[in-house]
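Exam revision sheet. Question 4 asks you to relate a sequence to its structure. Input first:
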Amino acid sequence: MPLPDDFLPLHDIPDPLKAPLERTRERLAEALGEAERLARMTGRDSPLESWLGLAESRREQLARVLAVSDFVAETLVRYPDWLVHLDVNGELDAAPNAEALRDWLVERLDEAEDEAAMHAVIRRFRCARMVGIAWRDLTRPGGIDMWATSAAVARLAETSLEAALTWLEDFLAPRWGRPAKRRDGSEQRLVVLGMGKLGAGELNLSSDIDLIFAFPENGDTEGGRKSLEHQEYFTKLGQRLIGALDAVTADGFAFRVDMRLRPLGDGGPLVGTFNSLSGYYQDQGREWERYAMLKARPVAGDLDAGAELLAGLRPFVYRKYLDFGAIESLRELKGMINREVRRKGMEGNIKLGPGGIREVEFVVQAFQLIRGGRDTELQVTSLKTALERLPELGLLPAEVVAELMPDYVFLRDLEHVLQALEDRQTQNLPDDDLNRERVALALGMEDWPALMACLDEVRARVRRHFDAVIAEPEEEVEEVADETAGGVPLEQWRALWRSELEAEEAAVLLEEAGFADPGVAARRLGTLYHSRQVQGMQRIGFERLEALMPLLLDAIAASDAPDTALERVLPLMESVLRRTAYLALLRENPDALGHLMRLCSASPWIAEQLARYPILLDELLTPETLYTPADKSRLADELRQSLGRIPEEDEEAQLEALRVFKHAQTLHVAASDIAGTRHVMKVSDYLTYIAEVILEAVLAMAWKHLTRKHGFPALADGSRAGATPAFLVVGYGKLGGIELGYGSDLDLVFIHDGAPQGETDGRRVLDNAVFYTRLGQRIIHLLTAVTPAGALFEVDMRLRPSGNSGLLVTSLKAYADYQRREAWTWEHQALVRARVVAGQAQLAEGFEAVRREILSRERDAQALREEVVKMRHRMRDHLGGRSGEGEFDLKHDPGGMVDLEFLCQYAVLSLGHETPALLEWSDNMRILETLESTQCLRARESQRLREAYLALRSAAHRASLTREPARGRSDTFQDHRRAVIETWQRLLEPGASSE
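Answer key, structure tokens:
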């Protein structure tokens, strides 16, 4: 029975496509008739019966697919029985998994006796699978979208590569043997890295596959008739693998293979050792190769060894710093592509043309190259995954991704349809009416004009987002200058920087730009420009500096105090002349320059921090966090994530991460302080939170380090410590009082609860005393070790029992005994400000009980008063009285912060036995509030003391930021000092005269 004329439903087929579809039906009918006759002759089943038994819905799908794809039509005409097999396998509705693909192909390859037979098997296998993939892409059954289609093609390519490689290894083994084992005894195979969209697992419907071949170690093959050096063996094996997929035979080809991404391209060896590849990328790797390696993924051969190779290359691809130099490289690469597009008249190309596929990929890959070293979540080969993560990391607004993602899918869907027409790699739009109708039908568009209108909108959106990320920053600044009356053109600033202006011209330019002393400013710029450091820069660095300086000078001129900004910013420029990624960062982010001017103009301390640690410039890129310090829970989460990206054994990287975290978070606090968005109490709170979070992390690191070596110590109650550190870090002084300032050191005491005669339970046993001492030493080392990012904190341990002559770490029992029997009054004063800042909760309760016990003792009021006054006078004699005429030392002079602290300590020690509420707090403000609420101080007196303390603390913070001595004008603080002195005299020195 022939194929009926009405076999293919035409009700959804546009009129222009019906006649071509009828011709295709006729050819299929002939092919099926021939297959029917052959079946009768051989006694096999005829595919015609199965075709006639297709359901109406399946025939509708067939009509749609055949109307669009000549590739599918030609394949089914040649192999009409394939449709039946694909239907039975379920491939018309769902993609087979990798295991099924592998099993099918290996079963067929088992019958191949030579390479020609192997080539035929792979090509027919690929062709059949591609019919199924194209069918699903054009009919879109449930769960099938562009991503599923591209993943299916990638999976097919990987399966074909692995099966062909395994077959070739077995086929060639009798002749050449197999590679010698690696030095560690493991087997050695070829490593096949998939690059581009294959590496991403997002291949086109008809795409080249970009590959790089490598092998682990040199040696000679073993077990064959002839031994070959590994280099020769893997080269021959690689050549045959390429031929297995790429060679054109009577069955066509499987996949076109492109090897040009390997080191030195076509001029380099086909395959290289791991060492040779690592050496190449380290010494000669170019920026475009970093871009290419973003997508590298082991796809065949020894996958574990491939992962090992890529791990070694990761530092080449992903920089530790924010690498805005990558944008320049992408911009240059895109410029080359644009020139080629214009030269060849390819503006309509949906991949390379404006607003095309490549521009979406450039946007995503720009963020991966710039931030992938820091935000390791971006170290993925999949564009889809990377794009989805950009909003989570705060790098692209969610609404931008919500446009880019569907627009990219639309462009890739269109690309797939163009390639499905003839199984040909193309991204050019058709210029004939018939193929335009086919493309419109495949994409569900009413007609070609409707499709083009949609495409124009998509490309316009993509181009807009691409320009926002990749566009030249000078364009933004020039636009602003054009809109602002009196704006200086960037060319003028460039001429000034290059010393091309006459002295008079330079003076006029600087004066009109708002500089108070143009001569000094011009000399500073000239000194830097002609310095040996600048003139000796390498080309790329000098070009980046030349591009940045006009923008920098424009930002300086726009600041409130140009002279001050220039004086403070130029040292930063000098510090980054050899670290040109930061020059690129500032050039690519004009808004960051504005924040830099604001902060440096307000604070020389911030300017110094940025010059010492340029990595902090990264923080200028996110003003929403720059001026909004994180609370303690968010700080802990951020630090946990930062340390979680670093291998536990890499202590150097952990130390560096801790220091960068501390500097960055402190900068956030200082920026919010300068902006006036944080009360002085909050500033200290945030600085204290930073210290606490770091101490918790350092304690955990030190505990893990010691217990991994020595096991867990025995505890005083007879149990054994576990993963949670059985240890306390107690903060005294400003840390304990929640009053840290910029640059404050940490007064610490270490307490444990180990068994006095106990020991650890590990392979290298230590006495508890030695274990806990080493733990304390380790903590101090982690806090004070100097790395390129400096130290975390200075640590002062002198407040521990017996001071510097005492043990570094004390048991809770010994600590309690010391406080009860041996501690001086001043040590009990210090205890008022003590609190647990890190460590085990149960042990912290024990410490708090000891603290309450000691502070709640009833004391002889007169003796206590004399001791406190005596200690205060001794400190004042040693540290006070150094202020100049009309000045006042905020801390040490009478009426200063130390007087207030002593007042609070005296109040707690003298009243704690009858006013337990005073024992709750370690900070002065809440002690003063409690004195008022318990009626130990009059409300007005307490309020004046609190106001005085806030004013003094605020001035001290400001002095730190402005790098000035902690002094104020006596007349400015007269009322505050009087309030403190009056209370001091009333409570502690009734007979003393007022100062």
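Marking note for examiners. The first helix runs from residue 15 to 42.
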